[in-house]
Write a structure and sequence with these properties.
51% helix; 8 helices; 13% strand; 2 domains; Beta-Lactamase; Arc Repressor Mutant, subunit A; 205 residues; elongated; alpha+beta; 4-stranded antiparallel β-sheet
């Protein structure tokens, strides 16, 4: 697999994470898995931290990744890696994934701090203005209500694969890159930056 393909895989997996309930822990676990980390710890200044099931065995982690959204640091992800520390392209992949993860954490925090979601009527008004088909609006409405991909498939009679296809099309139409950003857009907690600001840096294959 080339570096570009690996970047796309990481981006898609981060985009597919549950946006509110388990995003912090599942995102940290995904990044730890990129380098085979034996354990991780997520430290956050004003939030409860997270630890992997296996706790760090040393006070000096192999690598600590600052998680920044713009100029604001939203946390630090510490990884304990058995064997050689990541280097070269692997380290660049790790840093890029941490930037995507930090962006997702920031939106999760905003949703929590600003009262979760808009009232249902306001979300419906936003949906009506969005350039989506009726079926796409149904999918977004269920996602905003907290449904998982499987829940949406069951409710709409679509397959899980078809729901994921709908979501990718919705992301493209609305200029967002993950479920958490889509919910933030619908909830009105933040303006989503233009697509160009999310593009991955070039990597040699």
């Amino acid at each position: 697999m080339t570096s570009s393909e690996r970047l796309m895989e990481i981006a898609e997996r981060l985009a597919e994470l549950d946006p509110v309930r388990t995003y912090p822990e599942r995102g940290a676990g995904l990044i730890a898995g990129l380098v085979g980390a034996a354990a991780y710890r997520l430290d956050r200044a004003d939030r409860e931290g997270l630890n992997s099931e296996s706790t760090l065995t040393t006070t000096e982690p192999t690598i600590s990744l600052p998680l920044r959204q713009g100029r604001q640091q939203v946390g630090i992800l510490h990884l304990e890696i058995v064997g050689d520390a990541p280097a070269g392209n692997q380290l660049e992949l790790l840093k890029w994934a941490s930037r995507l993860y930090a962006r997702g954490l920031d939106y999760v925090d905003r949703l929590a701090d600003e009262g979760g979601r808009r009232p249902g009527e306001a979300v419906e008004q936003t949906l009506r203005r969005a350039p989506l088909t009726p079926r796409e609006r149904d999918v977004v409405s269920l996602l905003v209500a907290g449904s998982s991909t499987r829940d949406i498939a069951s409710e709409t009679g679509l397959t899980v694969s078809t729901v994921n296809t709908y979501l990718k099309r919705i992301f493209s139409k609305l200029g967002v890159h993950s479920r958490v950003e889509l919910i933030a857009r619908m909830a009105g907690t933040a303006t989503i930056p233009p697509r160009a600001s999310y593009e991955a840096p070039p990597h040699p294959d």
